[in-house]
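Bit of a strange request maybe. I'm writing a small parser for structure token strings and I need a real example to test against, not something I typed by hand. Could someone generate the tokens for this chain?
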Amino acid sequence: MCVTLGFEKAVYVVGNLQGTFMCDDMRNFFSSIFVALILSPAYADEPEVIGVEVEKVGMLWNISVTLSHPDTGWDHYADGWEVLDSNGQSIGFRKLSHPHVNEQPFTRSLTGVFIPDGTREIFVVPRCSEHGWNANPVSVKLQP
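Reply from user aminoacidic:
Good idea to test on real output. This should exercise your parser:
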């Protein structure tokens, strides 16, 4: 037996993805909701950049990044962050060597980063051991 909901098109949102589907019957609608609920935890466990501080020291830069991530132990933890230039090229990487289960959010620094003169923006991208790189780099404006 098929029961309609009174509309032919529905919108779904999963993380940053959005789309539409045609509702033929309740089973298609609830199947789509089920898939959305299954996929959404993957987005919830990405590490998040809470803050970035930069300091120019001579010709080099010190970069401090504050991360938040639901670390659970050695199998799933924020394991690093990378600094990218505006072309997406890596200009620095900070490895995080252990989980921070009871220390959230936490801040770690990378010192002596060479950023070419004239660069006015960098990006910080965190990574976790289970889900990989966060898909949304954080923009950081640099003062000359």
